[in-house]
Write a structure and sequence with these properties.
Blueprint lengths: L5 H16 L4 H12 L6 H32 L4 H22 L1 H5 L5 H21 L11 H12 L8 H11 L4 H24 L9 H27 L3 H21 L1
Length: 264
């Protein structure tokens, strides 16, 4: 993690914790923070730290849900919880395949500031339109296999920085008529296997010598901020729409494109 100090670790941990669970794109923000401030890429080791931190956050927040879903999935497969468990498992496949097949593009081609800025704006438009005009009839246990797979396919597009995993899955869920609260909760549950997979996949390249103070700081910061971000969004969507995040995406996307043009 060449050139990474504690302040940078804290900032990037905050960015990851917020961006992973709010519909604003953590991958875009991590790239943009380094781009705006001219920071060096800390490399794979710190990416593992950030993913591991958000993994701790989502597991800590939803561990009771996962215990209930797993038991139901293995012992009561025809119950609503049992079906939901297997729907989540199947919906994870498109995102996992996209991550495996497009990993090289995610690390190179998709990191263009113009692509990131454009995707921030386009996904903001789509989120606003879907959230504004969508029906609100399906709750968590009403989500069927077709809806789950549709949301899973949407999650695959999060490989492009600026799309946002939570933004894509919440948008798809709202398009399918899922309530805001249920859409957010399903999005978080669906993110768990993907975050687990990303952390495990990257751990193979980590050695004991990589466990620096910055590494631990990144884990703790992203875990704490991620936990708070999950709770905030679940409470927020009970009374509010997604316009706050839509306007933020517009403003940031425009700022990124203008900055890229000025810098040439």
């Amino acid at each position: 993690m060449s050139g990474l100090d504690i302040i940078q670790a804290v900032v990037l941990g905050i960015v990851q914790g917020l961006g992973e669970f709010l519909p604003i794109s953590s991958s875009a923000h991590l790239i943009l923070v380094r781009w705006f401030f001219g920071w060096d890429d800390p490399g794979l080791t710190f990416d593992v730290a950030l993913h591991f931190g958000t993994l701790i956050a989502v597991v800590a927040f939803f561990w009771r849900d996962w215990v209930n879903l797993t038991v139901a999935g293995l012992q009561r497969r025809r119950s609503p919880e049992g079906r939901l468990f297997w729907y989540i498992v199947l919906a994870t496949v498109p995102g996992a395949l996209a991550g495996y097949l497009l990993e090289d593009h995610a690390a190179t081609t998709f990191r263009s500031p113009f692509i990131i800025g454009t995707m921030l704006i386009l996904m903001g438009v789509l989120l606003w339109a879907v959230d504004h005009y969508s029906r609100r009839v399906k709750r968590l246990n009403d989500i069927g296999l077709g809806t789950a797979l549709f949301i899973g396919v949407a999650q695959a597009f999060a490989i492009i920085p600026g799309v946002s995993r939570s933004g894509a899955t919440i948008t798809a869920a709202r398009m399918a008529g899922v309530t805001r609260e249920a859409a957010a909760r399903f999005s978080f549950l669906l993110s768990t296997p993907v975050i687990v997979g990303a952390a495990v996949f990257q751990l193979k390249d980590i050695s004991a010598g990589d466990l620096t103070v910055a590494f631990i700081t990144g884990i703790v910061t992203s875990a704490v901020v991620g936990f708070l971000a999950i709770g905030f969004l679940l409470r927020y969507v009970i009374r509010h729409n997604f316009n706050l995040f839509v306007w933020y995406r517009f403003a940031l996307g425009l700022a990124v494109i203008v900055t890229a043009l000025v810098r040439g």
